[in-house]
Amino acid sequence: MFKSRSPKLILASLLAASLAALPFTASAADTSSVATVELRIMETTDLHVNIVNYDYFTDKPTDEYGLAKTATLIKQARAEAKNSLLIDNGDLIQGNPLGDYVATVDKLQEGETHPVYKAMNLLGYDVGNFGNHEFNYGLDFLKTAVAGSDFPYVNANIYLDDQDQDPSNDKNAFTPYIILDKEVTDSTGAKHTLKVGVIGFVPPQILSWDKANLEGKVIAKDIVETAKKFVPEMKKAGADLIIAVPHSGFEDIPQTPLMENSVLYLSKVEGIDAILFGHAHKVFPDASFEGKTGVDLAKGTINGVPAVEPGYWGNNLGIIDLTLEKSGESWTVKDSKVDVKPIYDTENKKALVDADQTIWDAIKEDHEATLEYIRGPVGKTTAPINSFFALIQDDPSIQIVTNAQKWYVEKHLQGTEYEGLPVLSAGAPFKAGGRQGANYYTDIPAGDIAIKNVADLYLYSNTVNAVLVTGTEIKEWLEWSAGQFNQIDPNKSEEQELVNYDFPTYNFDVIDGVTYQIDVTQPAKYDAKGTLVNEKASRIVNLSYNGKPIDPEQKFVVASNNYRASSSKFANPDGKRIILASPDENRQVIIDYIRENGTINPTADGNWSLAPFGNANVTFETSPAAKEAAAKADNLEFVADSEGGYAKFKLSSAAESVNPAPEPTPTPEPTPEPAPAPAPAPTPKPEPAPAPSAEKDIVHIVKKGDTLYHIALEHGTTWQALAKYNELKNPHLIRIGQKILIPVKK
User: Fold this and answer.
1) φ, ψ dihedrals at 501, nearest 5°
2) Which of 302, 294, 337 is nearest to 319 (CA)?
3) What is the spatial distance between Cα 499 and Cα 524, in angstroms, rounded to a whole number?
4) How far is Cα 359 from Cα 675, in angstroms, rounded to an integer?
5) Which of 198, 206, 293 is nearest to 255 (CA)?
């Protein structure tokens, strides 16, 4: 594993000896007096490649996000302070078409500088931390990208997988922490060298979320336990101040091992002086944290530790101002102030700062290449595609995705033991408002569809997976999905909000191929994390397949993505249900599906709906751009514009849907594979590989989690080349123990 470029850590024993031997320098304040230093710590987090203020999905500039805007705040904040640090908290290199272009279209090569670092190097960042999305493109790509950074990276809780089952000898995959020798000026103008320790963390769940990239290479350990190990070590190494940078959110729930959002408990680790957090795309301090355990909103502290979380995509700059006092050789935090500075006034819809032109200039060529890429044509749509109503009824923005996935999986199961099983398809609304704001919706007009529109439909660089589940397991999967809604009391007359915004919309899976209703008058069976909270609850009613109640024992193939298939206990109950792990991205499959059709009709098929909830006053918030479409429906009544720029609607219990009667596009006939294999025996054997040449071939033995795509990446070739070389009739179905020959490059 690679180590980031950073100063070497000073061994505790040598440091202790040297401090004892060295006289106090004249540049520092007199040890008999108290020196006061004001230190400003600035944070960006979850930029997701939004370096310039440009929305690649709508193909136009925006004032609401982008590091080019945040850069102006950074420069202003730095000018106001004698002493400052600037730290980034990850989820940096993935998240929009610019990131995809650099990672997959015109792939970044060794020696080239990733556009994020072309910009960030201009701003003088001091340290960076890895987020979970840093691993989406694999460790090799991450290494190549980070090599272009002028600032060091830290991570303490990822270790090399030595597979010896002995945690005592585990070695860090990255530099766990850094101690910066920061020259600071005190209130009298005297200079001091402040030793600032910075330690970083990432959610341990990366091992599930990016299993194909990480399995067998690294392991991840608990954030809090890792902090307890390293913070005392940092103190011994001479750190005067310790800043924890967890790519992790705040949750006021009981602590669990390998907790994803662990900031509440990290704040209790002795020795941490400040916390810069992220991952959850929230703002802290903020009124939404009122009453949470350990939170003092007035001071911006968690269990007494100053902490900040500055939103996402550069829409805010996080600032912690510390007042430090030095008495003798010891520094103490005497006071703190926490602030989050926005780049945009969401209430008045007004830009608060101008973009920094130097950031735009830095990535001009990358930006223009991305625009050319996203404007490439795919096909046509006969009707608009939007996600305004994706949380209240079957929706065209999901239907297109599930249709494409089903088409792809059926094609690639031909000639396998699974051919002939019913194929369902699961999709979720990735852009449906929520914490991302009232403009965060898919909205594609009728007419031409370009690559940028497909990227708007499917945000993530997931790959297609298929799982094998039973009718009973389909119901439990949908029960979890139904946690998207609050429980509605049909006997109440006062207003009741339908959507539970603590449940991420990207987990609201719609499963096409079955029909069902969701009874929101019943309690949810599972919470957002999939924990059973009401064992006897049943929100999913009238669940049917082919017009009949679903058979609990019947087996179904469900098309989905690698994220859901590898990390969800509902999609993969025993961890052994993945029957197809494709190298193809879901986004590319949608592009291929649209191209094969040419012109599509994006109408939803209405396979699910909300069950009647009586005369309850149920409200639902969505984009104000939905007003025109909602006016044509009998089940929605506009109430008022609401906080945050949303439009509030009253939803009737049983009326005509806002979607017109379905006229679905016929699924195209699968294109047969060249020389298709005959149907195998019930217990298939791995396809034999050609005999290796001792001079030319490397033999790769397929292991758990491998796909041909990732094997190809590991050996510097393409999956198509490997499929051809190994004469694989179905390259999407490789099996553990199978031999894949890798031709050695001449």
Assistant:
1) -80, -5
2) 337
3) 12
4) 52
5) 293
d(C-alpha 465, C-alpha 732), whole Å: 10
Which residues touch 141 (CB under 8 Å, ≥6 apart)? 103, 107, 108
Give the separation between CA 113 and CA 127, rounded to whole angstroms.
17
- In the chain, pLDDT over 90 holds for what percent of residues? 66
> Of 101-115, 146-160, 706-720, which range is least confident?
706-720
Q: How far is CA 570 from the centre of its chain?
A: 20
Structure tokens at 129: 């931390």
pLDDT at 2 over 60: no
Q: For residue 115, what pLDDT band results from cuts at 50, 70 and 90?
A: very high
Model confidence band, residue 540 (pLDDT cutoffs 50, 70, 90): very high
| Calpha distance 93→135 (Å, rounded) | 9
Alpha carbons 180 and 486: distance in angstroms, whole number: 48
Distance in angstroms (rounded) separating the CA atoms of residues 54 and 63: 8
Instruction: Tell me the three state secondary structure of residue 299.
Output: coil
Instruction: Quote the CA–CA distance of 736 and 725 in Å, as a whole number.
Output: 19
Cross-strand pairs, 579: none
Residue 735, burial from CB neighbour count under 10 angstroms (0-12, 13-18, 19+): exposed
For residue 234, the one-letter residue type is M
At position 117, the amino acid (one-letter code) is Y
Kindly report whether the global pTM for this prediction surpasses the value 0.90.
Answer: no
Longest dimension (CA), the chain: 87
Would you call 519 helix, strand, or coil by DSSP? coil
pLDDT of 485 over the 50 cut: yes
Where are the strands (E) in 550-687, listed by range? 555-561, 578-585, 599-600, 608-610, 618-622, 636-641, 647-651
Length in residues, the chain? 746
Which pLDDT belongs to residue 9?
36
- Residues 6 or more apart in contact with residue 423 via CB below 8 angstroms: 406, 409, 410, 413, 466, 513, 556, 557, 558, 559
Torsions phi, psi for 316 (to 5 deg): -145, 155
Distance from the Cα of residue 94 to its chain's centroid: 8
**Residues with Cβ within 8 Å of residue 133, at least 6 apart in sequence:** 48, 90, 91, 92, 93, 94, 95
AA identity, residue 672: P
Radius of gyration of the chain (CA): 27
Q: Which residues have CB under 8 Å from 236's CB, separation 6+?
A: 12, 15, 16
Q: Which helix (H) or strand (E) holds 243?
A: strand 241-246
Q: Which residues on adjacent β-strands are paired with residue 681?
A: none
**Beta bridge partners of residue 38, listed in sequence order:** 323
Backbone angles phi, psi at 413, to 5 degrees: -95, -5
Q: Tell me the CA distances in angstroms from 312 to 10, 178, 282, 316, 520, one per residue in order.
A: 35, 25, 7, 7, 32
* Token reading at 455: 């990227």
Residues 6+ apart with CB under 8 A from 95: 47, 48, 49, 50, 133, 313, 459
- Identify the pLDDT of residue 745: 65
Which residue in the block uniquely carries the two structure tokens 């007419």? Answer: 447
Locate 63 and state its tokens: 């004032």
Rounded CA-CA distance 700/706 in Å is 10
Strand partners, 220: 158
Distance CA 372, CA 220 (A): 39
Could you tell me the two tokens for 4?
């980031």
Tell me how far apart the alpha carbons of residues 67 and 69 are, in angstroms, rounded to a whole number. Answer: 5
Q: Which of 2, 12, 15, 6 is nearest to 171 (CA)?
A: 2
First CA to last CA across the chain, in angstroms? 26
